């Protein structure tokens, strides 16, 4: 007889692992599908200081390892497979991957989001070593250091103000001649003595041996290049890339309701517009994308999936 899981969770970041933990504890037959390795964005984070309780020596990989161990301890099955197609039309949902086809009574979408990269040489190599995509996560590490924020939208400008509480100086590097952020936020920046703006400029390269040491900027109008070198006493500076996120939701377009940026719309109980399909973590519409909110989403989605199954499937 073909196996039908109670719950299939797509994605093994903090949201997916939390959903798995709660589903497993509820004695639901649960499968987590992940195309790469467990952990999502958090596995690239060197220090996780803002997760309540945390672990000793709180690195991203150690926190994820603990989450995986917890999910496994409750009998959650995990498989590596890249999902290519999904059919949510029937009561039993069908998920098709490169390695197989899977069926379940309920689905939790926890596919996450990825920062939009600059694509500059050195960016990937120095991510977590001076290059960051999350001010809430990392601003405190740059207390009394110089920081450069790349971008000009609402997020970049708001995060510049937040970072200015810690940094010695914050410089916004924007590729256009005016910010795209709301005027009210712009006014706060222009009135903040700790924040400057470099206009019409893009990052050409980020340099450093194991840590950010310099950055090459290029003026888009004149073509002139300038290298920003770390203060000799500091030895480094922060680069916060704030040019947007890309929700990993392409698979669900036209099936699940989304906002205009591709984030899945879910209510406070993580329910989507499709019966029996729930959403958790960074791929959903929300105001704060952090490990703590992802794990909360995952817990709620699993409990709601359990209730859905109880109400819609006879024993």
UniProtKB/TrEMBL annotation:
Q: Which UniProt keywords apply?
A: Disulfide bond, FAD, Flavoprotein, NADP, Oxidoreductase, Redox-active center
Is NADP among this UniProt entry's keywords? yes
Task: Give the source species.
Answer: Anaeromonas frigoriresistens
Catalyzed reactions per annotation: [thioredoxin]-dithiol + NADP(+) = [thioredoxin]-disulfide + NADPH + H(+)
The gene for this chain is: trxB
Q: What is this protein called?
A: Thioredoxin reductase
What does the subunit comment say? Homodimer.
E.C. no: 1.8.1.9
Q: What does the UniProt cofactor note say? A: Binds 1 FAD per subunit.
């Amino acid at each position: 007889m073909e196996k039908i899981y109670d719950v299939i969770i797509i994605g093994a970041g903090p949201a997916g692992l939390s959903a798995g933990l709660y589903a497993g504890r509820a004695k639901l037959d649960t499968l987590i599908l992940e195309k790469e390795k467990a952990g999502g964005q958090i596995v690239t984070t060197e220090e996780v200081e803002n997760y309540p309780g945390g672990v000793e020596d709180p690195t991203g990989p150690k926190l994820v390892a603990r989450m995986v161990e917890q999910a496994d301890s409750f009998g959650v099955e995990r498989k590596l497979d890249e999902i290519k197609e999904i059919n949510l039309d029937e009561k039993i949902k069908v998920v098709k991957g490169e390695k197989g086809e899977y069926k379940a009574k309920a689905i939790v979408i926890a596919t996450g989001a990825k920062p939009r990269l600059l694509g500059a040489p050195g960016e990937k190599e120095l991510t977590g070593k001076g290059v960051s995509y999350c001010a809430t996560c990392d601003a405190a590490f740059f207390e009394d250091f110089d920081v450069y924020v790349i971008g000009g939208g609402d997020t970049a400008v708001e995060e510049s103000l937040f970072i200015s509480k810690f940094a010695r100086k914050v410089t916004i590097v924007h590729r256009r001649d005016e910010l795209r952020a709301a005027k009210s936020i712009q006014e706060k920046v222009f009135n903040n003595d700790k924040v400057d703006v470099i206009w019409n400029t893009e990052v050409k390269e980020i340099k450093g041996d194991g840590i950010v040491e310099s950055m090459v900027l290029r003026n888009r109008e004149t073509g002139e290049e300038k290298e920003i070198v770390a203060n000799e006493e500091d030895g480094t500076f922060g680069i916060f890339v704030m040019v947007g996120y890309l929700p990993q939701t392409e698979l669900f377009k036209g099936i699940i309701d989304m906002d205009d940026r591709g984030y899945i719309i879910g209510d406070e109980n993580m329910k989507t517009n499709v019966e029996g399909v729930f959403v958790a973590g960074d791929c959903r519409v929300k105001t704060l994308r952090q490990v703590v909110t992802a794990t909360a989403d995952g817990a709620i989605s699993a409990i709601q999936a359990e209730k859905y199954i109880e109400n819609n499937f006879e024993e």
